[in-house]
Design goal:
Layout lengths: L4 H51 L4 E5 L6 H8 L8 H7 L11 E10 L2 E8 L2 E7 L2 E6 L4 E5 L8 E3 L19 H14 L6 E4 L5 E5 L2 E6 L4 H11 L8 E4 L11 E4 L2
Parallel strand pairs: 1-3, 7-8, 10-11
Antiparallel strand pairs: 2-3, 4-5, 5-6, 8-9, 9-10, 11-12
Length: 266
């Protein structure tokens, strides 16, 4: 006997029901797979986080390149805030980053020497000297651009006096009559650094002859002619003048003449 219309309808209904059940099963399996993958990713990320936290905690810090700030001050600047003790995070945070809001510092980077040891490399702004203006110390670079204004003096940077200017604007060039003076200032500061001495002050007279101040000792070096020879000789003389007050005349010094006199203050 053939199937009746009712039987065919019932058969189609059963088939549709089977397909829906199959789709539900497949959908449930897909959802479970997705949930499993998400849970695995979360577990992997959590494991990675715990690994980084436990293996990259900073225990030893080296600081290099800092002059204006102590090692402890640099460490406080770099290692503050969240994950401040994590070497991996710090190396990423300070990679190629310019520093804002910290006077005298251009950039800093953090180098991982081992998972628990870092080196903070400090790159300070190249300063040639400073002038006093309205109770502030205005620091300028090799081009005479005022790069910082501070309430405190900084060791290693000489005060420059004798220059005439009517105003000072941060991030602009110091308005002096002879801009070539900045080359002379940079040259003299580089020379005293080269020979391991540190001038407190550089004075220029109206003819741009120089006098260097080392505590209570004034060194008249005159023009910048033979300046390298003069500073090299000064390096050997200064230790013998420690604790004294007076004027060292070196304007006419050359390796041939060796003309130097020292006059004690009365």
């Amino acid at each position: 006997m053939g199937r009746t219309a009712g039987s065919r309808s019932q058969l189609r209904l059963v088939k549709k029901t089977d397909k829906k059940t199959e789709y539900r099963k497949r959908g449930g399996a897909y959802k479970w797979i997705i949930v499993s993958i998400v849970l695995l990713i979360i577990a992997a990320l959590l494991s990675l986080y715990l690994y980084i936290q436990s293996h990259y905690t900073v225990k030893t810090v080296y600081v290099e390149g800092n002059v204006h700030y102590t090692n402890e001050e640099i460490m406080d600047m770099v290692m503050g805030g969240y994950f401040g003790d994590n070497s991996l995070f710090l190396s990423l945070k300070y990679r190629g980053r310019e520093i804002e809001g910290i006077p005298f510092v251009q950039t800093m980077d953090v180098e991982i020497l081992s998972p628990d040891t870092i080196r903070i490399n400090v790159y300070e702004k190249a300063l040639a000297g400073y002038v006093e203006y309205l109770g502030k110390y205005m620091y300028f670079d090799k081009d005479g651009i005022i790069v910082e204004s501070s309430d405190a003096k900084t060791n290693g940077i000489p005060q420059v006096t004798g220059l005439k200017f009517g105003y000072v604007i941060l991030h602009e060039k110091l308005p002096v009559e002879n801009e070539a003076i900045f080359t002379k200032i940079l040259n003299i500061t580089q020379l005293v650094t080269k020979y391991g001495i540190c001038a407190d002050k550089i004075y220029f007279d109206e003819n741009y002859n120089m006098t260097l101040y080392f505590s209570d000792v004034r060194v008249k070096v005159g023009s910048d002619e033979k300046i390298d020879e003069k500073i090299m000789k000064l390096q050997s003389i200064l230790p013998s003048l420690e604790g004294k007050s007076g004027t060292l005349q070196m304007e006419n010094y050359t390796e041939e003449s060796k003309n130097i006199t020292f006059s004690l203050d009365e």
